[in-house]
Specification:
Strand content: 35-45%
Order of helices and strands: EEHEEEHEEEEHEEHHEEEHEEEE
Low-confidence stretches: none
CATH class of the largest domain: Alpha Beta
Number of helices: 6
Helix content: 10-25%
CATH superfamily of the largest domain: Diaminopimelate Epimerase, Chain A, domain 1
Mean pLDDT: 96
Distance between the termini: 11 Å
Shape: globular
Number of strands: 18
Structural class: alpha+beta
CATH architecture of the largest domain: Roll
Radius of gyration: 18 Å
Largest sheet: 18 strands, mixed
């Protein structure tokens, strides 16, 4: 048996300015020497929504390459790992701490990062191109969420994807969002013959933007405290159905599970959708494996 290797990693809370809120993330700033199987095992061991491993960039205009794992699978793109990793790279000096723009490589392709510097950085990612998927019956969505049909707004539930196919379901108020639930049997009923792994995003419009929850049993997560990859498509869905008019707003997520997260949205002049947030450092640790 080979000798265990030492791997340094950070744990940060993403989309929050308060420790022990937001969405926790583990970041290994140097993934060299780790196989895909080893990275998956580490992600399963840590059992967070996602764990990120950083590698040198393949393209000369990129700062780093990220591989992102849930406890059960590798992701093509994920928002809170992108924002959290950008913070760690700035904090560790891998990216100069005064840099305002850089690019991170992910399986989905290059992801532009923009930093608003201040007392603490507000880190923005540009949402990858959004693809449209099938529309679902409101009655079926209500049933699998454990809600009444009257709880679901008239806007048609639909899959949108910026790397992670997600069913967006708009409901009438925050109480309906909090009553909702999703189990694996409901996921199977909802997706039917749809071939890809899906998430289910339930939200209601608010004066600030949206109040949201996201269920992902197929990814090994009953519920996710903050889903940056779904927030860009959420913004596109809300704009299309006239559920929001502001160019800058906030989606509050994770409150029901006591991990309140604030995901900022900015609609650029060319219609690009940026998702941003603050990051709170929490742990510096060492793993031997």
């Amino acid at each position: 048996m080979s000798e265990p290797q030492t791997h340094h990693y950070r744990v940060v809370d993403v989309f929050t300015e308060r420790p022990l809120e937001g969405n926790p993330l583990a970041v290994f700033p140097n993934g060299a020497g780790l196989s895909g199987a080893a990275m998956q095992s580490i992600a399963r061991e840590l059992n967070l929504s996602e764990t990120v491993f950083v590698f040198p960039a393949k393209q000369p205009d990129s700062a780093a390459r990220l591989r992102i794992f849930t406890p059960s699978r590798e992701m093509d793109f994920a928002g809170h790992p992108t924002v959290g990793s950008a913070f760690v790279l700035l904090d560790e000096g891998v990216v100069p701490p005064d840099r305002e723009r850089f690019v991170l490589e992910e399986n989905v392709g290059p992801v532009p990062i923009r930093v608003e510097h201040g007392k603490r950085p507000l880190i923005w990612l540009t949402t990858p191109p959004i693809e449209e998927g099938p529309i679902f019956e409101r009655s079926l969505c209500a049933e699998v969420l454990g809600l009444a049909i009257d709880d679901v707004l008239d806007t048609p539930p639909q899959i949108l994807s910026a790397g992670n196919p997600t069913v967006f379901i708009a409901v009438k108020d925050q109480a309906a969002v909090d009553r909702a639930g999703m189990e694996m049997a409901g996921v199977k009923r909802l997706k039917g013959s749809y071939p890809k792994v899906i998430c289910t995003f339930v939200f209601t419009p608010t004066p600030e933007g949206a109040y949201s929850r996201m269920f992902a049993p197929e990814h090994g997560m009953v519920e996710d405290p903050a889903t940056g990859s779904a927030t860009g498509p959420l913004a596109a869905y809300m704009i299309r159905h006239k559920l929001v008019s502001a160019k800058r707003f906030v989606s509050e997520q994770g409150t029901k599970m006591r991990r309140r997260s604030l995901l900022h949205v900015n609609i650029g002049a060319a219609g690009e959708i940026e998702v941003g947030g603050y990051v709170t450092p929490l742990v510096r640790a060492v793993m031997q494996c």
